[in-house]
Amino acid sequence: MADPTRIIRMRHFTIVFLLLVCSGSALRAQFNTNRLPGGGGGNSSMQRDTTKHDHEPDTLTLRFRYLDEPTDFMLDSTISDFQLNYLGVPASYMTLGNNGNAARNLLLSPRMIPGFDPGFHAFDIYSYNHTNARFYNTNRPYSELGYLIGAKQEQMINLMHTQNRGEKFNFSFAYRKINSPGFYRNQSTNHDNYRVTANYNSQNKRYHLFASYYLNKLNGGENGGVQNPADLENPEFTQLRLIPTNLGGASAQSSSFFNTSIATKNAYQEAGILLRQQYDWGKGDSIHINDTTDIYKFDPLFRVEHTFSYTENTYRYIDESPDSLWYAQKYGFSIPRGGNDSIYTRHRWRIMSNDLSVMQFPVRGNTAHFIKLGGTLETIAGQFQAMNESFMNFRVHGEYRNKTRNQRWDLQAKGEFYLLGENAGDYMVMGRLSRFLNETLGNVSLMAMNVNKEPSYVYRYFGTNQPPPSAVWLNNNLDKENVTQIQFRADNKQLKYNVTANYYLFNKYTYFKSYKESDQFAGLFNLLQLVVYKRIDVRSFTFDADAAFQQIAGDAPVQLPAFWARLRMAYTARLFKNLNLYTGLEGKYNTPYYADDYSPVIGQFVYQNIQQFSNMPDVAAFMNFRIKSFTAYVRGENLNSFVWNYNFNAPLYPSNDFAVRVGIRWWFVN
Predict the structure, then answer these.
(1) 402-422 as b/e, with b when 16 or more CB fall inside 10 Å?
(2) Helix, strand or coil for residue 25?
């Protein structure tokens, strides 16, 4: 006898699929269509689209820069990649199931930054920081509004505004809200992100000020996974939320958009402020434009730069109703059965940094050609449940950059070395050469990097409120890690592809071998990684393919899918001259592998080689469209749940059921 739940899913799948397909077909039949230039698709690393379109006047000139990057970037208004351009999460990332839960990249991307690191990165993909802060320059005030609504009361807000006050000062403000109860019990997330940036240039263009502030409030519910995966096919559980989970208890949780109560969670708060001041010596000239207009142009030759930053991060785990048996099995906690004692942890870090650098610009008029030398003093203080910690670091750094004015050559050599302090001996050296060949052959680059660094602090120490001996976990036998990366990359806009080949060599690789024990792999191992993107346009249809191949040589404690791919098949058109349409199907697949487990208390993914997962493809239907400054995304996700069993993102963490998401983005030029 057929499973009634499976029959209902098949009916839902048929209805949604027909609606999405018919909507695209009807629009095509009713209007005279022309394919979008570029097909409306593409990979964001190739796109430098702006808010200017050939069907509307260019009323806005808006550019932005990142810290330590001398080139300008423009807004990306493409509508093809919902996951990256709208959610801000690359397609290769795997979450524990819910928007805002802990996430990891299926394509290995080691952290190659020397110096002190607390080590809590499972929620990084949802965070603002100084590295991704944008410093704008615009001729008119510009605002963006985004709102998403999905299944199980999922909601997301994105706000951004920037404007110049005169020609010398610009400021911007950004806010993001993620609130999602999730499909499974005790899986709620509630994130708030704030960011403010400002930049100022003096009248004589000698003094520059950059200011960046961010605040991340990340609350990720932790349920420890489902107790019995067989319950997913049990007809008694008519909703996934009824399936028992390992953490959080059986009581219903309170959830609203601005006030969510999460009993068992990782609660992270990250705040940082950065002030960078620069003063230039050089040559200035007045350029005569017409009888009434003169422009003052200043070319720096020598610069003094001071950067002050202060960061305060608090990482907590809270369980107000702990399950004594589960914690005893996973962590060795001795909690009285039925007791009311809560479990909590706290790692709080304060980091203050002062950097003084000097720069020389050998060629007048080219600020992307420079030599930079400097030194940085850091003071670091940590507070935990049972102890405090404080230390300092002093490092020197240098950089040579030469990006030619014709934009054909880009040479960069960079290094930093920690001379004194807790991280003495850490270093990073990097060299990169890039060449734009021509419009047909595109751009190619070669990069090599070597990093020697102390393992993140969470591998060395972790403390809880539980009584000894389970209160503190220590590992004082960790040496410095060493990672080498060699990369070749080719980008071609005309042929619509890019290729990235990475070779990694690891020595003293550090990892978690259990829910609370860290370890270090004594030997060497290497990884070959090939990542390819290609777009094919056939009349009004677009095929976007992302694929990756990964091969590890050596007996390493790293588990990765050998092959990962995403394919989007879409119909693209311009209708009514103002309606840009991109609609079709999207599928993601990776080969079987031993997916990492997850330890909620320490917020870390854990190596395991016992349970292998052979997931079926994840399938979604979508219809994205833009009408001038308005963009909408309509998606039917997890269509595969109508046909196959649930996929697993990690041991005991199944994927979601079928869901519909609707997101909008609207930008305004005042």
Answers:
(1) bbeeeeeebebebebbbeebb
(2) helix
Instruction: Please state the rounded mean pLDDT for residues 74-81.
Output: 89
Give the C-alpha separation, 7 to 13, whole Å.
Answer: 10
Measure the CA–CA gap between 30 and 35, rounded to whole angstroms.
15
pTM above 0.85, yes or no: yes
Torsion of CA 397, 349, 127, 547, to 10 degrees: 60
Read off the pLDDT of residues 388-428 as tens digits, 9 standing for 90 and up.
999 999 999 999 999 998 889 999 999 999 999 999 999 99
Phi and psi torsions of 23, nearest 5°: -65, -45
658, burial (CB in 10 Å: exposed 0-12, middle 13-18, buried 19+): middle
Going from the N-terminus, what domains does the chain have, and what CATH number goes with each?
4-669 (2.40.170.20)
Residue 204 tokens read as 């004589």
Which DSSP category does 73 fall into? B
Which of 403, 423, 426 minimizes the C-alpha distance to 413? 403
Neighbours of 177 (CB within 10 A): 17
Are residues 134 and 64 in contact, defined by beta-carbon separation less than 8 angstroms? yes
Joined together, the tokens standing for residue 458 give 């969470």
| Biggest CA pair distance of the chain | 89
Name the strand (E) or helix (H) holding 391. strand 388-403
340-357 mean pLDDT: 91
- Helix (H) / strand (E) containing 325: helix 324-331
Identify the top-confidence range among 53-57, 108-112, 252-256, 462-466: 108-112
Gap between the terminal Cα atoms of the chain: 62
User: What tokens does 41 get?
Assistant: 């698709």
The Cα 359–Cα 218 span in angstroms is: 38
Please compute Rg for the chain using Cα positions: 26
The Cα 606–Cα 104 span in angstroms is: 11
Question: Any bridge partners for residue 581, and if so which?
Answer: 573, 625
d(CA 225, CA 185): 9
AA letter at 614: S
Per-residue pLDDT, averaged over 418-442, amounts to 94
d(CA 263, CA 143): 36
pLDDT at residue number 324: 78
The span from the CA of 253 to the CA of 52, in Å, is 46
SS3 496: coil
DSSP string, 235-304: TT-SSGGGS-BSSS-SSPPP--SS----SEEEEEEEEEEEEEEEEEEEEEEEEE-SSS-EEEEEEEEEEE
Classify 16 as helix, strand or coil. helix
How far CA 476 is from CA of 384, 389, 446, in Å, comes to 17, 15, 38
Are 559 and 590 within 8 A, CB to CB? no
Residues 6 or more apart whose Cβ sits within 8 Å of residue 429: 414, 415, 449, 450
CB-CB contact of 539 with 570 (8 Å): no
